[in-house]
Amino acid sequence: MPRVTEIAFTGYPVSSIAGSRAFYEGILQLKPSQVFDHGEKAWIEYEIAGSTFAISNFMGPPRPGEMGPSVAFEVEDFDQTIATLRESRAPFYQEPMVTPACRLAVVGDPDGNPVTIHHRLAAASP
Fold first, then answer.
1. Do the beta carbons of residue 47 and residue 35 sit within 8 Å?
2. Is 126 part of any domain?
3. From edge to edge, which strands make up the β-sheet containing 41-48?
4. pTM of the full predicted structure?
């Protein structure tokens, strides 16, 4: 019987490689681990704590920004990340909020894809 053991990657369709790289690399400070460039088409991978997040204009439907995949990025400094996103004028789909387990907000990338900014809270002491 098949058994899934991990997520190989999360991939987002994008309309502009340059615009998306400016967002993910410039604002969120991700570092590309693999770049597959084929003329006007590209697949860019970012390794994040043992997982891979990718952006590409190779993909077909769904088109960028349509409800499809979503990724949550764990961040060290939630407030600083939110401030940087506000300065960049990223659209907020979910304003910052606190749950019993985390702080989170959902923003849109240049194509409207949802990106969750996440920070786990320390476990409460008994």
1. no
2. no
3. 10-13, 51-56, 41-48, 32-38
4. 0.70
